[in-house]
Amino acid sequence: MNAVNRQMTLRRYPDGMPKESDFEVVMAALPEVGEGEVLCRAYYLTVDPYIRVHVSPSMSVGYAPTTPLGWPIPGEAILQVVQSRHPGFKDGEFVAGFGGWQDYCALPGDSLRKVDARLAPLTAHLGSLGMPGLTAYVGMTKLAEAEAGQTVFVSAALGGVGAVAGQLARLKGCRVVGVSSSAEKCRYAVEALGYDACLDRTQPDFAARVAAACPEGIDVDFENAGGEVFWAAFDHMKPYGRMLICGLVADYNDSSPPPGPDRSPNLLRMIALKRLIVKGVMVADYWDLRPRFLEEVGGLIRDGRLVSREYVVDGIENAGRAMIDMLSGRNFGKTVVRIADPPVV
Amino acid sequence: MNAVNRQMTLRRYPDGMPKESDFEVVMAALPEVGEGEVLCRAYYLTVDPYIRVHVSPSMSVGYAPTTPLGWPIPGEAILQVVQSRHPGFKDGEFVAGFGGWQDYCALPGDSLRKVDARLAPLTAHLGSLGMPGLTAYVGMTKLAEAEAGQTVFVSAALGGVGAVAGQLARLKGCRVVGVSSSAEKCRYAVEALGYDACLDRTQPDFAARVAAACPEGIDVDFENAGGEVFWAAFDHMKPYGRMLICGLVADYNDSSPPPGPDRSPNLLRMIALKRLIVKGVMVADYWDLRPRFLEEVGGLIRDGRLVSREYVVDGIENAGRAMIDMLSGRNFGKTVVRIADPPVV
């Protein structure tokens, strides 16, 4: 093949909110395909908040290593098999894998999962049926201990994780209060996703609205936002409440700790006084749940009981802008980038 | 009876570390004894870190209401029944109850628990066999999920809670690393309480010593200290580690949040990345465990397998100083104040 492999790479590490000039499309050769590997063509790239952590040297930890400059931005993608050197995959099959932001990738077959395009549109396999959806499923089924009638608070209510978490909570019979970043998105959350209420975090009286929307307090905070949204939830947690720390988008652009006062002593004190349980949510611990998740959530989507909405940006050259828009709340639904038209299936 | 009831009261709310002049002994009349109540004489008063929270208006929450000025400082005491108007209690019996810092109190009989002076010295019923011991028992048996071979980190290693938590962890087969505030206390923790190691938090290289003493990281942090001791533990938590937030003595004197930087975003981020579970420990949720606790821990004390050491200060007029010493780490063991000599039993 003499195709060109476009890669969206980091030119420099973003300082604060990323800028489009931090990114750069470069042309690369197609990768070699080793034994057991599969060469894939990418159609859709995921743009998730956690990617911001990967492109920040100051946040590097073992679980989220920093992407080297000049390398494609990491992340899951919807792919089609071009050349398989793995017995489990045939040319032409749709798969999802950690190909990163590039046209072509060669991945170990064992790291790929097949994508059933009849179950839901390809884009949904990066969102409600992908890693974000599984994250929400893990949180709501394994960690939240939410019961019918309890109040579940979901920040980034329309996002890849939030939209599924909120809808699963609703289906469980919980009262679900979401947070988003515009009146239009909040309306969508209530009307299309079935949130009982959704609050616009850009309104100056946001904290008061949280109090009004959660008159009995919050039993479960599914935290995707961080920052002031987190604190508004924290201040309204009920005794014995669970806080699932999944995403902290508001803080991802900070390369050093924000100025004081130091709110951590108050955080710890209220955890003790209210007997809160604060837990980290990390989907990587629960890959074994994927079959059950695909069956359950896939069934809900097929039956129209759970809505999956993706915000599709066109062109690999716009992937950096898509990430900036997502971090700024200018997206509407779970962000994906279409870098080539997939064949009709 | 024409006895005088001495009460150790608050003259003013302490600003930062309490001063002896914040306290004042006043003379009061003996309380009336209502139907169902029991008039008691106090011999030993407990001095626990949580009392600092009760004497701070800025920390008042429903669970820890602020003590009004002029009222006796709250807290459990070892008492003897003087006059009973409750069928469950006879004159002369030893009981424990929330009498506060005063010679005489009238308490509902239903709020009292009998004290078995043959099981352990009376003072131990405020410490290892009292609320602090039960707190440690709840933490280690219900919340820590500690397994043999895991590393358990216990701050305030000699305190009422810490000494029992550390010893229960040792008896479970854990590697137990304590923290205290002098070389002498650390030696005692290792030699008498059986800690595998104990670190002096006043040493400048404390954080490095934590790293050296916990080469594989910390599975369970039984947090009684807060402040820099907390952060040293936090930085060494293993993935999936549990942090039991029980006491935050280092922060109790702060009437407003400390200056920045704000460490709370980092706290939340690492909770997510390491999948930590942070839980509040509150003994009040577990009164029903008391019989099992008394049998188990009482048996361990009787058999010499668990050591109870109290730091006894004489005189109600010195109770304020005893509290200051405890908050400053000048005590050696669990602090109690003897305000009258109990009859020999």
Number of helices of chain A: 10
What is the CATH top level name of the largest domain in chain A?
Alpha Beta
- Tell me the distance between the termini of chain A: 24 Å
Written as H for each helix and E for each strand, in order along the chain, the element string of chain A is EEEHEEEEHEHEHEHEHEHHEHEHE
Q: Please give the oligomerization state of what you see.
A: homodimer
Spans of chain A of at least 5 consecutive residues whose pLDDT stays below 50 are: none
- Class by SSE composition of chain A: alpha/beta
How many domains of chain A, as an integer? 2
Largest sheet of chain A: 7 strands, mixed
CATH-defined fold name of the largest domain in chain A: Quinone Oxidoreductase, Chain A, domain 1
Average of per-residue pLDDT values of chain A? 94
Q: Largest contact between protein chains?
A: A-B, 43 and 42 residues
Q: Helix fraction of chain A?
A: 25-40%
**What fraction of the residues of chain A are assigned to beta strands by DSSP?**
15-25%
* CATH architecture classification of the largest domain in chain A: Alpha-Beta Complex
Rg calculated over all Cα atoms of chain A: 20 Å
CATH superfamily of the largest domain in chain A: Medium-chain alcohol dehydrogenases, catalytic domain
Annotation, overall tally of beta strands of chain A: 15
Dominant shape of chain A: globular
